[in-house]
Write a structure and sequence with these properties.
The chain has 157 residues and is α/β, with parallel strands linked by helices. The chain is 36% helix and 20% strand. It contains 7 helices and 9 strands, in the order αβββααβαβαβααβββ. Helix 3 packs parallel to helix 4.
């Protein structure tokens, strides 16, 4: 059923359930959220370095399919916009259309691919609008902290 699909694949012919390894999943990074979170301060100036640090941590844990989805306006606010080419080499980079927030695109991607989501956004306003988000988004979401060059995230095994 739909609840079990989160955890793996059931092969009815062989009558076995294959559990997905966490590292086999895609990971979506809420780029705007990560860029703005330095030293636990969500009001800090946004930085590409924050996103690159999270990508580096994820790769060190064995993740290979990493997608960054940003608001279009983020590139105008970055303190280190010169690092955008480096970001585009490190991971797949998607920018939401101008005048549109990235949240609906991030949520839709997670819904379709059942992938992990790196964000400190709780998507509270979206939970009210969509029962799937209310029930499932916290299952896929990984919170994080950035302290200087170090990224702190729950252990990814």
């Amino acid at each position: 059923n739909e609840q079990v699909k989160k955890y793996g694949h059931y092969d009815a012919d062989g009558e076995f359930f294959e559990i997905n390894r966490m590292q086999d999943r895609k990971v979506v990074i809420d780029g705007s959220n990560v860029a703005h979170n330095s030293n636990g301060n969500s009001a800090s100036k946004p930085s590409v370095s924050n996103i690159l640090s999270v990508i580096e941590l994820l790769k060190s844990k064995g993740f290979t399919e990493i997608i960054v989805i940003n608001d279009a306006s983020l590139k105008h606010k970055l303190t280190d916009a010169d690092k955008l080419p480096q970001l585009k080499e490190a991971a797949e980079y998607i920018e939401a259309p101008r005048e549109n927030p990235a949240d609906p695109f991030i949520i839709q991607y997670v819904k379709r691919h059942h992938c992990l989501l790196v964000s400190n956004d709780t998507f509270r306003e979206w939970k009210v609008q969509d029962p799937w988000i209310a029930e499932n988004i916290d299952f896929y979401r990984l919170a994080f902290m950035i302290k200087g060059e170090e990224v702190l995230m729950p252990d990814l095994k």
